[in-house]
Design a protein that fits this description.
There is one protein chain. This protein has helices at about 1-25, 35-50, 50-60, 60-65, 70-85, 95-115; strands at about 30, 90. The chain is mainly α and about 120 residues long. It has one domain (about 1-115). It has a two-stranded antiparallel ribbon. Helix 1 packs across helix 2 and helix 5 packs across helix 6 (about 95-115). The radius of gyration is 14 Å and the shape is globular.
């Protein structure tokens, strides 16, 4: 029971983080509503659970060559995939913006989750 509660809290934190970034930094991402941010958060969780491990495995040689910096690109690609699947309700404004948004989402979500879960 506690584990499912933590998953729901983390999902809400990530959704609110996405909405907050879209509100305060609209040059990075655009979200049409809090509902779209929550759906993007849920979809991002599924993509990170199932697609991201395959992409990380494929990019493993690049990870060694770039000293791990390719991870930022992989995270940005996952955001682009969410943007593609959600269409106009979740928009990434560019490549560098996707990298910055992915960094901020993971940083803020991790920070808030450490206090609330």
């Amino acid at each position: 029971m506690k584990k499912s509660k933590n998953l729901i809290i983390r999902w809400l934190i990530t959704g609110i983080t996405i909405f907050g970034i879209a509100y305060y930094l609209p040059s990075l991402i655009k979200v049409t509503s809090i509902t779209a941010a929550l759906i993007a958060s849920l979809l991002l969780a599924f993509i990170n659970a199932f697609v991201r491990p395959v992409v990380v495995f494929i990019t493993m040689p690049l990870k060694f060559l770039t000293l791990g910096m390719i991870t930022f690109v992989v995270n940005a690609l996952m955001l682009y995939l969410v943007s593609y699947l959600l269409g106009g309700s979740f928009i990434i404004m560019g490549v560098w913006q996707a990298i910055a948004a992915a960094f901020l989402i993971s940083l803020i979500s991790t920070f808030l989750s450490s206090f609330l879960t």
